[in-house]
Amino acid sequence: MKKILVTGAAGFIGHRVSELLLKDNIEVVGIDNLNDYYDLALKNYRISTLKGNEKFNFYPIDIENLYDLKELFSEHQFDAVINLAARAGVRYSVENPDIYVSTNVQGNLNLLNMCKEHGIFKYILASTSSLYAGKEMPFVETLDVSEPISPYAASKKGGEVMCYAYHHLYNIDVSIVRYFTVYGPLSRPDMAQLWFMKWIDEGKEILLNGDGTQSRDFTYIDDIAKGTIAALKKVGYEIFNLGGGNNPISINQMIQSYEKLLGKKAKVKNLPFDKSDMTKTWADISKTKKLLGWVPETDFETGVQKCVSHYKENLEFYKSIRLN
Fold first, then answer.
1. Active-site residues: which are they?
2. What's the pLDDT score for residue 324?
3. How much is the pLDDT for 125?
4. What HEC string does the chain produce?
5. How far apart are CA 33 and CA 317, in angstroms?
C-alpha cells in the first residue's frame, strides 16, 4: 500500500499507527477535528511529532463533515482507510449520547460512503471490548454483543454492523479491531493510567470508582498499533480482538505498580462503582494470532515502566496537561 487515510490521527492510537506506517515508508494522510474533549496541548504535541515527515499530510477535518470529506477524497487516492476517529469514554457517553451517535455512527457511515464512491476496498474500524459486558471470559469474537450497557458501546456496535452491510453490498474488505484497555506514553488524560501516574507523583488523591478489584486486559500502545496495521490484510469481513491475552490486571495492582516505580504512596478515595462500567475484561486472541499472525509483545510491568520513564523524561510537559 502506498497511501492510507488515518482518521483521529491526533489521538492516542491514531498517532502511533501513523508513526509506524510512516516508518514502513507508507504515505499517511491524517485527519482529526481537534475537539476539546481533553487538553488540546496533547493532541497538538502528537501531531507536531508527525508533521516533520514529508510523507505525512494533516487536515483538521471532522468525519461528520461530508463536504470536507468529499474534497479530501477527490484530492487523494487512498489504498485503505483506518477509522480511528471516535468519541471515546464510557461515562461521558452516558451524559452526552447524541455526539457518540453523530461521530461513531454517522461519521463512520460518511467514510464508508466515500470508500464506495472512490473504489477503496480496505476499511478498518476501531471498536471496543466494552461490547462484551456481561459475557463469559475470555471474550471471543463470536459472542452475542447485542446488549451494550453504555451509549459508547452501542454506538460502536452500530458502526460495526454498518460496516458489515457495506461489505455485503459493495464488497468492501473490512477488519473490525476491538481494543482492550490501551495504555502507554501520551495516553488520553481521561484514562486511569495517566490519571493515577500523575496523581501519585503529585501527591494528589486518586478518585477511584469501585474498590479497585475490577480488572482489565491492559494492552500496550505499540502492540495495539501493530495489530491495527496487521489488520490491513484482506480478510473479507472479520472481527479481531486486540488484547494482552493474559489474565486481567486489577486496578489495585496497577496502582501498586505505579507506587513502586515512583517511590510514592497513593492516596485513594473510593467512589461508588459506575453501572455503565465493566467489572472485568479479558481477550481471547487466538483468532487474531491465527489470521493476522499478531501477538502482543509487551507485558504489563514492562509497559508501565515505559510509561513512567516517558513521564519522567517529559515531566514539565505532563505537569502542564489538564486532566479531565
1. 152
2. 63
3. 98
4. CCEEEEECCCCHHHHHHHHHHHHCCCEEEEECCCCCCCCHHHHHHHHHHHCCCCCEEEECCCCCCHHHHHHHHHHCCCCEEEECCCCCCHHHHHHCHHHHHHHHHHHHHHHHHHHHHHCCCEEEEEEEHHHHCCCCCCECCCCCCCCCCCHHHHHHHHHHHHHHHHHHHHCCEEEEEEECCEECCCCCCCCHHHHHHHHHHHCCEEEEECCCCCEECCEEHHHHHHHHHHCCCCCCEEEEEECCCCCCEEHHHHHHHHHHHHCCCCEEEEECCCCCCCCECCECCHHHHHHHCCCCCCCHHHHHHHHHHHHHHCHHHHHHCCCC
5. 22
Q: How far apart are CA 296 and CA 241, in angstroms?
A: 11
∠ CA(68), CA(73), CA(33), 5° rounding?
40
Helix axes 108-118, 151-170, angle to 10 degrees: 10
- The span from the CA of 278 to the CA of 132, in Å, is 9
Q: For 67-109, what is each residue's pLDDT tens digit?
A: 999 999 999 999 999 999 999 888 888 999 999 999 999 999 9
Determine the Cα–Cα distance for residues 133 and 157; give it in Å rounded to an integer. 12
Burial class (CB in 10 A: 0-12, 13-18, 19+), 225: buried
The amino acid at residue 149 is: I
Cβ atoms of residues 174 and 167 within 8 Å: yes
Q: Cα–Cα distance between 167 and 174 in angstroms, integer?
A: 7
Extract the C-alpha cell encoding 260. 513502586
- Residues with pLDDT less than 70, the chain: 324
Residue type, 291: L
Phi and psi at residue 130, in whole multiples of 5°? -60, -20
Q: Residues of 75-98 as b/e, b for ≥16 C-beta within 10 angstroms? A: eeebebbbbbbbbbbbebbbeebe
Question: Rounded to whole angstroms, how far apart are CA atoms 191 and 169?
Answer: 37
Q: Which three cell numbers stand for residue 164?
A: 458489515
Fill in the amino acid letter for 166.
Y
